[in-house]
Amino acid sequence: MSKTSIPRGTRDFSPDEMAKRNYIFDTIRTVFKCYGYAPIETPAMENLSTLLGKYGEEGDKLLFKILNSGNPFAEVSAAELENSNAVTFKVSEKGLRYDLTVPFARYVVQHQNDINFPFRRYQIQPVWRADRPQKGRYREFYQCDADVVGSASLLNEVELVQMVDDVFTRFGISVTIKINNRKVLSGIADVMGASDKLIDITVAIDKIDKIGQESVLEELRAKGVAEEAVQKLLPILLLNGTTDEKLDKLSDILSSSETGMMGISELRTIFGHLKFFSLPQKVEVDLSLARGLNYYTGAIFEVKANDVAIGSICGGGRYDDLTGIFGLKNVSGVGISFGADRIFDVLTALDKFPTAATETTKVLFLNFGSQEIVTALSCLKNVRAAGISAEIYPDAVKIKKQMEYANKRNIPYIAIIGEEEEKNSVISLKSMKSGNQQVVSLEALIQLLV
Amino acid sequence: MSKTSIPRGTRDFSPDEMAKRNYIFDTIRTVFKCYGYAPIETPAMENLSTLLGKYGEEGDKLLFKILNSGNPFAEVSAAELENSNAVTFKVSEKGLRYDLTVPFARYVVQHQNDINFPFRRYQIQPVWRADRPQKGRYREFYQCDADVVGSASLLNEVELVQMVDDVFTRFGISVTIKINNRKVLSGIADVMGASDKLIDITVAIDKIDKIGQESVLEELRAKGVAEEAVQKLLPILLLNGTTDEKLDKLSDILSSSETGMMGISELRTIFGHLKFFSLPQKVEVDLSLARGLNYYTGAIFEVKANDVAIGSICGGGRYDDLTGIFGLKNVSGVGISFGADRIFDVLTALDKFPTAATETTKVLFLNFGSQEIVTALSCLKNVRAAGISAEIYPDAVKIKKQMEYANKRNIPYIAIIGEEEEKNSVISLKSMKSGNQQVVSLEALIQLLV
C-alpha cells in the first residue's frame, strides 16, 4: 500500500468530510461577509525572505522549503555540505506559508496604494508546518482569519468579539470568549519591577492552564525573575469576581504603571460596549491569557468550548506594528483566527452537524437500459433545470445494485421509469427512508423535491 | 520593494478579483453538484513516488520538490553532488501536486474500499508547475475537475458534455464543444499502416491549430512515418460536412480497423443522445483533436470560446486505466477540467461578470463619535441579523473621508444617525449611486436592503 500513501500529517477529505468542512467554512464566511470583511488569497509559496525570522527560531525550522528549479546543486561546494543551513538557503528560495498573518502583512505593504483603509479582509486557506504530526495536529491545515488594519478604534475589537459570538452561536457550540490586554501584562511586569522580563513573564503565564500556577512561578524563578517580583505576581493570578470587580482591583494594583492603566481603560471600553449587546455567549476577562506570539500589543482573545475538553478553538488580538517588519510603519491592526480542525472535532463530539450538510444528490433515476433511458434523461434534464441535484445510474446493472448505491450514498429518493411508467407518462417516486412509493407526474416530482 | 515581492508566476488575489473568481468557482460547483458529483480534497503535497513518471520527463522537471525536514544534507557525500538528480531525491521526498488527476487516481486506489462506485467526484484546488512564467501561464493556478470512475457507460460522456454546455451557458459565453475519440485516432494509425507511430501521430495532429497542416505532415516525416502513410492522413484531416456526414465518410475509410470502427460507434452513440437534448452550445466532432496526454483511451473533449481568441478553456476525456499505475486494474474513468484562469480572461474580455459578483458590503453606517455610536451599533446589529452585509466606519474621522471610503469600496448605501436622527429614532439612508437621501425607520431600512 506504500504506493498509495500520502505524506505524514496530511489528509485526504472524502465527500462526507468535505460537506462538513464546507459547512464550517460557509458559516464562518457568512459572518465575515456580514460584518463587511472582504476575501483575499495569497500564494501557497512565499519567498523565504518574507517568512524567515517571523516565527522565532523554532518556526524557521518548521517552514517547508521548496527546492529551486533547474540544477540547484550546481553551485554547492563539498565544503558547504558541512553547513546544512548554508546549503538550504543556497538551493531553496521559497517556502510554503506557515500562517496567514505574515503573508497578509506582506500583502498590505505590497498593495498599500490600492487598498482602501481601514481594510477589513478575511482569508480562508491552508497553511503548512513541518511539525511532528500527532492526534489533532497536522502538517497541512486550514486557517480562517479576519483582520482589520489601518484603524486603532476599539470598535474593531468589539465587532470581532461579536463575530466570534455569532459564529459559535450559529454552530450551536457553547463557548467562553476570554479577553486580556498586552498592556495590562506590561503593567504587571512594571509593578513587579521586572519590565525587562516581560516576554518571559507572558510566556510563563500563557502556560498556566497546562502546567499550573506553582510551575509558572517556578519557571519565572528559573528565568532569573527575583523572588520579590515573583511574589507580586501571585495575587494578580488569583484575582476573582465579575469583570468589573477584577478590573477595579487591578486598577489599584497597576495604578503606578501608565501602560497598565491604559490596558485597563481599553478593557473597560470593550466590555462596556459588549455589555450593551448582551451576547448569547459568555465573555470574560482572563488575566492569565497571554498567547505565545509576541507581536500582540493590545487586546488578546481566546475562545474555549465549554462542553468539550480541547485547546483554544479561536484566538487573536491587536498588533500595532505588524507591517513594520516589511517597512510600513504605524499601521495598527487587530484580527481573529478560527481553528477549523478543532471546530470540526467539537461539532463531531457534540453531534451538531446539521443533516442537510451531508446530503448531496436528492434523487437517483434508475437505469433500465436503452428502452426507457431517453425518457429518464429527458426528465432528469428538467429536474436539474429546477435546481435539484439529480443523477442517473450510468450502467444498466441489476436494480438491487443500483438501490444499494443509493442507500450507501445517502440519496433520499429513487425515480423509476419502467415500461409501465413510460406508457402513462408518469414516474414512480420511492422514498428511501420510509420505503413509500407514489406515482407522480414530472411536475409533481419537481414540486416535491425542490 | 523586493522586501514585499512574491515568487515569480504566483499571484495575490484582491477582494475584487476574489469576488469574480468565486463567481466562476460557484457556477462550476453548482453544475457539478446538480449532476450528482461530490467534492473531495487531497493534500497539496504528495509523495514524489506518486508524482514522478506520470507527466513525462518534462513533467518530472516541472514538479516543485520540497526539502525534507531536519538536516537533509547530512547524508549527502561530496561525490554525489556531481549528480543533481541523485541529491534531489535524497534530500526531497515530497512534491507539490502538478494536477488533480494523478492525486485523484491515487485517492481512488487508496480509498477503494470506502468508495461507492460509480464514483462521481469533483475537485477545485490549486496546482503548481515550475513552468517558465508568461502571460496567462502561472506557476500556481486552480483546476476545476469532475470525473466519474467505475463505469464504462457512454452516458457519462453525454452528461459531461451537458455539464460543459450548462456551465458556459450560465456564464453567457458562446463556445464550441469539440469531441473526438482516441480509438478513431488508433484506427487512423492502423489504416495508415503506422500503428507503432500512434503517439507521434496524435502528438503531431494535436498541433494542427498552432502549426498548420503542412507542418504536421512534415513533423510526421521527420518522425520516420513513411510518405505513403503520411499521404493517407491528408484526406482524413480534410473531412468536412455535418457530424453525421463526417462519421459516414470516416466509416468507409476506417472499415478495416476494428478499433477505429469501435471509436466511430462510440461517437455515434454520444452524438445520438446529445442531438436529443438540443443543447444551446455548438457540439461537433473534430478529428484533429488529439490532446497531448497519452492516457486517454476513448472520448476526448475540448472547448473553445467562439468570440475570444484564447486556447482551450475546458478539456477532458476517457481513460481506461488511470488507476492501473497504482495497482488497481479495470477501473474506467472519464472526466473534464475547467481552466478557471482562461475563463476569467474570457469573461473579462466579454464583460460578462455580473455586477452582483463584485458587491460586498451593502450599507456603511457613518461614525459621528461617541454620542450616537451606541444607537448606530444597535441598528447595525439588527441589520446584520437580517442577513445584510453592513459595516460601521471604525474611527470618528471627517465625514468626507468616510464617504470616500464608501465610494472606493463600491458600497451602495450610507446610513446616517446624527443628533437629529437619534432624537426622532430614524435613520437617513443615502444612495451613493443616485445621491438621493430618505429618512426611514430601522424596519423600513431593512426592508429596503434585504
The percentage helix of chain A is 40-55%
CATH topology of the largest domain in chain A: BirA Bifunctional Protein, domain 2
Total helices of chain A: the number is 18
- The CATH superfamily of the largest domain in chain A is known as Bira Bifunctional Protein, Domain 2
Number of E strands of chain A? 16
Please tell me the overall pLDDT of chain A: 92
Rounded to the nearest angstrom, the distance between the terminal CA atoms of chain A is 43 Å
What portion of the residues of chain A fall into strands of 2 or more residues?
Answer: 15-25%
The greatest interface here is:
A-B, 107 and 105 residues
Q: Looking at the chains present, what oligomeric state does this protein adopt?
A: homodimer
Total number of distinct structural domains of chain A:
3
pLDDT below 50 for ≥5 consecutive residues: which ranges of chain A? none
- What class, by secondary structure content of chain A? alpha+beta
Structure characterization notes:
2 copies of one chain form a homodimer. With 450 residues, the first copy, chain A, is an alpha+beta fold. Chain A folds into 3 domains: 12-173, BirA Bifunctional Protein, domain 2 (2-Layer Sandwich), CATH 3.30.930; 176-306, BirA Bifunctional Protein, domain 2; 359-449, 3-Layer(aba) Sandwich (Rossmann fold). In chain A, 43% of the residues lie in helices and 18% in strands. Chain A contains 18 helices and 16 strands. In chain A, the strands form 3 sheets. Chain A has an 8-stranded mixed sheet. A 5-stranded mixed sheet of chain A has the order 13-12-14-15-16. In chain A, strands 2-4-3 form a 3-stranded antiparallel sheet. In chain A, helix 15 (370-385) links the parallel strand 12 (363-365) and strand 13 (390-392). The longest helix of chain A is centred in the N-terminal third of the chain and has 20 residues, at 15-34. Chain A is globular and about 95 Å long. The first copy, chain A, starts with 14 loop residues before the first helix and ends with a helix. Chains A and B meet through helix 1, strand 1, strand 2, strand 3 and helix 4 of A and helix 1, strand 1, strand 2, strand 3 and helix 4 of B.
